[in-house]
Automatic annotation (TrEMBL):
Residues 21-116 form the YdhG-like domain. This is DUF1801 domain-containing protein.
Length: 121
């Protein structure tokens, strides 16, 4: 883990230990999903959050005051069977998370799988 990433995680933890737990849970889910797909991903600190990339950037995780947002670069192209994607822009969609339980309840791994598939094209 690089210094910028360590500092960002430290800052999030100082702001809110519960938000840090969610951010770390999302990172673990991204990494586990990428490992299952045999894809290498990178994490970069940018725009106040952590951006994820495979062959191309596919999303990021950002901590706000009351929630964590998992954002997908091409989320508008996703199927959304669980109706958890928010946003109405031309490309991006996001999932708001307020607890660790929501990572499973909102089927985050399924959406990350879609993002990885698009990023690996």
């Amino acid at each position: 883990m690089n210094g910028q990433l360590e500092k960002l995680l430290e800052d999030i933890g100082f702001m809110s230990p519960s938000l840090l737990e969610i951010v770390q849970g999302v990172r673990q889910t991204v990494n586990a999903t990428a490992d299952a797909s045999s894809l290498d991903i990178t994490e970069t600190v940018k725009y106040g959050g952590i951006l994820f990339s495979a062959k191309s950037a596919f999303g990021g995780v950002f901590a706000y005051k009351q929630h964590v947002s998992l954002e997908f670069s091409l989320g508008a192209n996703f199927s959304d069977p669980h109706k958890v994607l928010e946003g109405s822009g031309k490309f991006r969609r996001h999932i708001k998370l307020t607890s660790m339980d929501e990572i499973a309840a909102k089927h985050v791994a399924e959406y990350i799988t879609q993002a990885l598939y698009q990023a690996d094209k």
